[in-house]
Design a protein that fits this description.
CATH class: Alpha Beta
CATH superfamily: Bira Bifunctional Protein, Domain 2
Helix content: 10-25%
Largest sheet: 8 strands, mixed
Number of strands: 11
Oligomer: single chain
Distance between the termini: 25 Å
CATH topology: BirA Bifunctional Protein, domain 2
Strand content: 25-35%
Shape: globular
Order of helices and strands: EHEEEEEHEEEEEH
Number of helices: 3
CATH architecture: 2-Layer Sandwich
Structural class: alpha/beta
Length: about 220
């Protein structure tokens, strides 16, 4: 397993190209699995379920169509994007379980800062109960799979400009009482290095080790 952190913001299309090249190398057995931590410049991405009407301000930031699942998402400085490239054939071959592990990974990392992240039925991502009927999303999840190798992953709001989410309906969620938050907004006081350390600390306990190359996943 390789673990990579980019210190400067990474162009979105360059990141997608790099992931696709890595997926091909993992499939060929010439590269190991990868977790890539980075930030992007301000931008919006449209997943495979994105609705045109959910792009409220199309001229605000660049908009990229992407093959990951989900709807519109914002990426930008202060948000930790974790691209998770895993070979499910060397694991349990279960995509649904992979998404559950991504959720659990983020929930455990947030707990290190006193934040109770929660799943919500029918709503992708990790949510925080703000009380009085309000719930805010703190992390987005979007996954793509090619030849049983996962890529894309999670985006955790550390301290982004929350107003930048106003240009979209984040993940298609527009119901009253639902919004977006961050560790900074919740008063967690964490920096990027601390968040990265929490993600690293909880990765293996959640995802475990992959089987050696050549060993297939057990039959379902």
């Amino acid at each position: 397993m390789d673990w990579q952190t980019s210190s400067a913001p990474v162009d979105y299309l360059a990141a997608v190209e790099a992931m696709e090249q890595r997926v091909a190398a993992i499939r060929a057995g010439t590269a190991d699995e990868l977790v890539w931590l980075l930030e992007h410049p301000p931008l919006y991405t449209a997943g495979t379920s994105a609705q045109a009407g959910d792009l409220r301000d199309p001229g605000r930031f660049p908009v990229y169509r992407t093959g990951r699942g989900g709807q519109y998402t914002y990426h930008g400085p202060g948000q930790r994007v974790a691209y998770v490239l895993l070979d499910l054939k060397r694991r349990d071959g279960d995509l649904r379980r992979h998404v559950e592990r991504l959720e659990e990974w983020v929930i455990r990392a947030l707990a290190d800062f006193g934040i109770q992240g929660e799943r919500r039925a029918g709503r992708v991502g990790i949510w925080v109960d703000r009380g009085a009927g309000r719930e805010d999303k703190i992390a987005a999840i979007g996954v793509r799979v090619r030849h049983w190798i996962t890529y894309h992953g999670v985006a955790v709001n550390l301290a982004p400009s929350l107003e930048h989410f106003d240009g979209i309906v984040p993940c298609g969620i527009a119901a009253p009482g639902l919004g977006v938050t961050s560790l900074a907004d919740l008063g967690a006081g964490a920096d990027m290095a601390a968040l990265d350390a929490a993600l690293a600390r909880h990765f293996l306990p959640v995802f475990g080790q992959a089987r050696p190359l050549g060993l297939a996943a057990p039959a379902a």
